[in-house]
Fold:
Amino acid sequence: MERSQATIEILNAKRKLQLKWSDIAQSIERSESWTATALLGQATLSVDESEKAGTLLDLSKDTVESLTIVPYRGTTVQMPPTDPLLYRFYEILLVYGPAIKDLIHEKFGDGIMSAIDYEMDIQKVEDPKGDRVLVTLNGKFLPYKKW
Structure:
């Protein structure tokens, strides 16, 4: 089964059962952001995790099995993105990316932030002027190796 088909089945089940990503994350004992990433087709679940998600969401056997296959990452969104929310993140990188890069190099040296040894968190911060979105990207610094 294609991961895109599995994602459709997962989202339909999530909606039908009125579950939140946090509910599913609790059932597979992972973070909310990682769970959403995996079930939207961008990470691999273990057999145990996929079976737990499958039971909770009443997924087909094919979908459960597809969740354990290593996906082609980064293929689900066209670039530049057309969805307004995703485009804002793209815009953030266009505007602030050079400053982010320079600040990371100034503080850590020549290297990159890992997207493999990485954690992400999304929080709602209530504010009387309008609720705010707090996005935390936490990746290990990887210096470039000399040889």
Notes: DSSP finds six helices and two strands in the chain. The chain has three domains: 3-66, 77-109, 110-147. The first strand starts at residue 111 and ends at 125. The two ends are 43 Å apart (CA to CA).
